[in-house]
User: Which sequence fits this backbone?
């Protein structure tokens, strides 16, 4: 049995799947990509048992009969990547090996039994809706960086996807900061909260493009499935209860000390002063007085960095508060507006970071004692 696929057509699905396939696997079959051929379609599937990605391409020549095979995903990807652009790749199955040929290159790869390849069943949706890829990508982009990483509170190692009415809200927190973005769609949604695992969020964000192309989403209590272009992405959900994020966000009436600043100038000032910060604690002191912000950082070597900025802060009462400088830089990087608004309550309460143009985006950063 043999078939042919152009190198450029094959590389795209392999690159998409290679992110899902783990380098170290408990089961050898999980290091492989499942290739299914029927008529003039080739379907590629990769999984790590938590995430499954399936994508297909059209073949220039139809195959004589349906066939299945599994090949090492990373080796096949590296072979395709290093072949010349525009080359044609021929696959032929000889005994228990697949021989890959292109021009004067020949590679003999081992294959495992396709029937051993694990597959996630099609899901029965509790909530089903569609939205543009660009809108979904933006939800992930504005929030994913606040997810915890290997926290013992396992439900924080992911992103909350909250649907209600016609609003989708994405929330991420690591216990020290929180990111939230809400957006409206043209569908009435079932009230549901799910937690997408960290790797699932990263892979989905990598695959989506900033376009108006559609994306169909199905949710139930165990899985999220997203279909876009010729790709089906399925992720197992984290079984846990996400904290009530509404209690963490400072009340607008209480956080009545409002600072407005140029986002880029403030970000660059934070980056400069952070050069001398303690690598572990990353603390920075905010000293606010009328239309002035003073930034100060000290480290254990008794070194100090200071910077002053002109800001819009029309209050005579001074305010001094400490933060983790990295959390502030991350939030400012995620915003795209020229101006940033930071609302303070007092020196012991979290600040609320907002954008004038990007409605529905909120960042909360807890204070730290310096």
Assistant:
């Amino acid at each position: 049995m043999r078939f042919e696929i152009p190198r450029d057509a094959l590389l795209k699905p392999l690159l998409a799947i290679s992110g899902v396939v783990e380098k170290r696997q408990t089961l050898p079959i999980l290091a492989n990509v499942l290739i299914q051929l029927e008529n003039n379609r080739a379907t590629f599937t990769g999984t790590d048992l938590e995430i499954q990605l399936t994508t297909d391409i059209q073949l220039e020549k139809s195959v004589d009969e349906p066939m299945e095979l599994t090949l090492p995903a990373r080796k096949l990807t590296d072979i395709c990547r290093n072949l010349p652009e525009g080359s044609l790749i021929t696959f032929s199955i000889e005994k228990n090996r697949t021989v890959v040929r292109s021009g004067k290159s020949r590679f003999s790869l081992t294959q495992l039994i396709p029937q051993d390849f694990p597959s996630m069943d099609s899901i029965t949706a509790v909530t089903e809706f569609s939205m543009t890829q660009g809108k979904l990508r933006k939800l992930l982009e504005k929030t994913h960086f606040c997810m915890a990483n290997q926290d013992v509170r396992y439900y924080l190692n992911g992103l909350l996807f909250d649907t209600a009415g016609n609003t989708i809200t994405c929330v991420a927190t690591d216990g020290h900061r929180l990111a939230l973005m809400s957006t409206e769609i043209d569908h009435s949604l079932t009230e549901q909260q799910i937690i997408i695992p960290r790797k699932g969020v990263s892979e989905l964000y990598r695959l989506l493009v900033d376009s108006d192309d559609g994306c169909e989403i199905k949710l139930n209590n165990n899985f999220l499935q997203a279909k876009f272009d010729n790709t089906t992405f399925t992720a197992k959900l984290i079984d846990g209860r996400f904290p009530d994020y509404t209690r963490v966000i400072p009340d607008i009436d209480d956080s009545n000390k409002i600072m407005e600043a140029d986002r880029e100038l403030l970000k660059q000032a934070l980056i400069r002063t952070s050069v001398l910060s303690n690598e572990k604690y990353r603390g920075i002191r905010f000293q606010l007085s009328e239309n002035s912000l003073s930034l100060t950082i000290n480290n254990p070597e008794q070194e100090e960095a200071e910077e002053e900025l002109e800001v819009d802060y029309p209050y005579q009462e001074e305010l001094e508060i400490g933060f983790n400088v990295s959390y502030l830089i991350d939030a400012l990087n995620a915003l795209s507006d020229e101006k940033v608004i930071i609302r303070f309550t007092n020196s012991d309460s979290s600040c609320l970071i907002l954008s004038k143009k990007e409605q529905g985006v909120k960042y909360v950063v807890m204070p730290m004692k310096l």
Remarks:
- The domain at 127-247 is CATH 3.10.150.10 (DNA Polymerase III; Chain A, domain 2).
